[in-house]
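Pasting as-is:
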Amino acid sequence: MTGVRPEPEVCEVWPENWDAVQLFASLATQWRMAPMGGAIGLDYTALMALMPLFGGASRDLLDRVRVMEAAVLKRMQEERERENG
């Protein structure tokens, strides 16, 4: 149906992960793309520049964002494989 938006998925975020989730969301337009298409990872220059705004530059915050990055890349790969048969 045109014009009908699906309900957004609701996801609980533990308080200790809130800064990482907010940082990850702020990087939505900061994906590095492969020459033949498809994301290959986040732009870490942008990530490092934004980290101080979301709890400070720390290894823990970086690791939490990298977990989300890996999960999204895996999901993107699965979707490409499904589309290409």
